[in-house]
Amino acid sequence: MNRAEEIKKRRTFAIISHPDAGKTTITEQLLKFGGAIREAGTVKARKTGNFAKSDWMDIEKERGISVTSSVMQFDYAGKRVNILDTPGHEDFSEDTYRTLMAVDAAVMVIDSAKGIEAQTKKLFQVVKRRGIPVFTFINKLDRDGREPLDLLSELEDILGIASVPMNWPIGMGKNFQGLYDFYNKRIEVYQPENGERFIEFDENGEIDASHPLTNNPFYAQAMEDAELLLDAGNEFDEKKVLAGQLTPVFFGSALTDFGVETFLNTFLAYAPEPNGHKTVEGEIIDPLREEFSGFVFKIQANMDIRHRDRIAFVRIVSGEFERGMGVKLLRTGKQVKLSNVTQFMAESRENVENAVAGDIIGVYDTGTYQVGDTLTTGKLKTPFEPLPTFTPELFMRVTAKNVMKQKSFQKGIEQLVQEGAIQLYKTYTTGEIMLGAVGQLQFEVFKHRMENEYNSEIIMTPLGSKTVRWIKPEDLDEKMSSSRNILARDRFDHPLFLFENDFAMRWFKDKYPDVELMEQFSV
Ligand code: GDP
């Protein structure tokens, strides 16, 4: 197979959801179809591995596995599928958001009893900004959940995305009979008595009247809903799906492996091939271009605590990776050799021989790379657009435990902030250090790495949640600062306020109506 064909086979996506919606369960089912794991349970092992926040020994033990399951690759139906993990729970961090910069599509898993939950909403917003396609799987139909029509309106009302159902549940919970499959023009029967899983429609879009299901009241209800949807609902429109304006919705039950394969087949029929990626000059680098290029979207630290080693995750944008190849790191202009590189399979990390645009490789790193770095060979001279920064919501004040060890403290902070592990702020006048993160685990990883990699014990004092707003340098007036709105600067010296809450922010706006508060710094 030539390189272009290889690249066109790639389908790279992330699954987003709120914790407990069923992301792990569905991932395992997908891996099973891909033959990547023999039995479901492998992905689960990581999750139930007692990932206690405070117990770093456990995290150390789990680390190998957690890196492995960051990217899962398998072959299915002529495609090479890369699933990128977006951790939930305590692992939620800026990395979770940045991973969404490295995928070409997203699958959103929703618990049918809960509808759209907080974390799904946050992740969806990042996906929406990118304009990549989103496919929705509404899970746990084997349990009683909310009305399917309500769930569809929630997609529109809460997320602001139009939806088109690809199939429709016939009953739910104890009364779950199966799926009315608009797309494949058949009924998919849940726990069929006679073993007949699929019943094809006749030319009228119905099944044979002699089938016992036709006497089921839930079947009649589903037919009614279906008619309504076909009349008044959105039509499937591939262009809109690919532009992220319309989400195809699938129903199912991941736990009982019902509807997952149907979902996978349809998803893979429409999920896009690898996208090009924009440089800072606005040029789109096509995946089929000859020269290798890629960008670092995540750095995972501490494979071995005795060394400062880490893995830099690189999304290949164009060309092909070959073992030992020399590439240029555009930020420093230096040549680096990609020799110690891993690719990810569900069960093990394997040394990769070659990988192409769309794939993810893990480059062994001793402190060379930063999140957002561009790697290229050949003629590509401009870096890719910087990754967006995600406004932190949680804050800590941080000091060195041992005042004599200021040097290692400063060095550790500088390097970890540069790497993209955490956000740094300093109070404007006194220069006290505050750290910002999107998830609690980011602080704990930071503390752990300061101690282990920089030999610097630190004291962290929680400042709770804050809202960050930047101001224009010309508006700066130290008198505007108070304990409820801390005046600070970010690592680029841009001035900002950390507001205690929305109330404090409104109060500020009333008092200083001429001061513009910005969600991102711009002059
Ligand atoms: P994650 O946090 O999103 O990865 O969710 P998990 O896959 O770990 O699922 C959370 C819980 O929901 C587990 O107890 C699963 O067994 C259960 N679960 C997942 N899918 C289904 C489903 O389709 N039906 C039912 N009844 N339970 C499910």
From TrEMBL:
Species for this entry: Lactococcus muris
Protein keywords: Cytoplasm, GTP-binding, Nucleotide-binding, Protein biosynthesis
The organism's taxonomic lineage, starting at the top: Bacteria, Bacillati, Bacillota, Bacilli, Lactobacillales
Its biological purpose: Increases the formation of ribosomal termination complexes and stimulates activities of RF-1 and RF-2. It binds guanine nucleotides and has strong preference for UGA stop codons. It may interact directly with the ribosome. The stimulation of RF-1 and RF-2 is significantly reduced by GTP and GDP, but not by GMP.
InterPro entries found in the cross-reference section: EF-G-like_DII, EFG_III/V, G_TR_CS, P-loop_NTPase, PrfC, RF3_C, RF3_dom_3_sf, RF3_GTP-bd
Location within or outside the cell: Cytoplasm
Listed NCBIfam families: prfC, PRK00741.1, small_GTP
Protein's recorded name: Peptide chain release factor 3
Top-rank lineage group of the source organism: Bacteria
Xref: Pfam families: EF-G_D2, GTP_EFTU, RF3_C
Domain Tr-type G: 8-275
Binding site for GTP: 17-24, 85-89, 139-142
PROSITE patterns: G_TR_1, G_TR_2
UniProt record similarity statement: Belongs to the TRAFAC class translation factor GTPase superfamily. Classic translation factor GTPase family. PrfC subfamily.
